Amino acid sequence: MKLNIKPFILLVGILLIFVIPVLADAPPDPGGDPTGGNPVGGGSPIGGGLLTFIIASIYYTFYKIKRDRN
Fold it and tell me: What per-residue confidence (pLDDT) applies to 44?
């Protein structure tokens, strides 16, 4: 069985071309004002996600109660 090494070298070369620059990137800026004016998250609203979570929790609770009664 003869092993063809050219595809392996090509694959390693392509992976190195794409992986090394990704590892060299600086971490993202956390946002916010360094003096404490803005929160670290940049003042992102959570109202829509919180409302969705509450509605889903209520629905799941009623689903479990109905399933347990049957």
Answer: 61
Specify the amino acid at residue 18: F
DSSP state of 69: H
Furthest C-alpha separation in the chain: 68
Rounded to an integer, what is the distance from CA 41 to the centroid of its chain?
A: 15
> Coil, strand or helix: which one is 37?
coil
**Region of residue 67 (left: phi > 0; alpha: psi -120 to 50; beta: else):** alpha
For residues 70 and 63, give the distance between their C-alpha atoms in angstroms, rounded to a whole number.
Answer: 11
Segments of the chain scoring below 70 in pLDDT: 1, 20-25, 30-48
Q: Is the dihedral of CA 30, 31, 34, 38 positive or negative?
A: negative
- Model confidence pTM above 0.85: no
User: Which residue in this structure is represented by tokens 């990704």?
Assistant: 22
